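Field notebook, page 163. I keep forgetting to write these up properly, so this time I am using the form the group agreed on. The chain and the ligand, heme C, are recorded exactly as supplied. Prediction of the bound pose follows.
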Amino acid sequence: MLRQVMLSVALAAVLGTGLVAAEDGAGSVAETIAARRGLMTQLAALQALIDSRLGAADYSAELYDLGQAAAQSLEAFALLLPAQTNLLGGAPAAAGAETTAAAAIWDDLPAFQQLLRDTAAVARQASEAGDIAGFRAEWDKVAAACTTCHESYVFFDPFAAIN
Ligand code: HEC
């Protein structure tokens, strides 16, 4: 049940919006960015669910599905980074499109995509651990990767609120 819910959310986010368009480079910039931001929002929701399952005394079989869904979200994000969505790096503005994805991502896009895939692989290892201690050991690395990546690749304008 949980598995179906989480996977269908991931799939809807990707198929419903920009994935196909992103691959041929001709899609809507706003939709592609909305799709990738949706995947990150979903990752935060998955993280909250995982944290609550890890706080329980007994191993929850749902942890398998949650870890797999997190891995899939990270992998799908890697497909939603066409150059025309590099708005902070000079790509033309598009109606309704807003992003905090830093221009540095496109300095070496393959390396950035690898970072996402490496993090996905760790999430998958957590998922397949089969017990709370093993899951937590791997998931801690995923949580650290969220923070490290955001520090380097997510741009927040400290003056945005007062402009
Ligand atoms: C390899 C880099 C990378 C990793 C790993 C990563 N993120 Fe992100 N995250 C980003 C980028 C880039 C954005 C900005 C997306 C945009 O605005 O287009 C972002 C944005 C977000 C946002 C804001 C979404 C919005 O509405 O704009 C949240 C929440 C988030 N990430 C959560 C997470 C969580 C939770 C994890 C770990 C489980 C994670 N991220 C792992 C790169 C990463």
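OBSERVATIONS:
- The pocket of heme C is lined by residues 33, 36-37, 40-41, 43-44, 47, 70, 99-101, 115-116, 119, 142, 145-146, 149-150, 153-154 (CB under 6 Å).
- Helices lie at 2-15, 19-24, 29-54, 62-77, 109-127, 132-153.
FOLLOW-UP: compare against the apo run.
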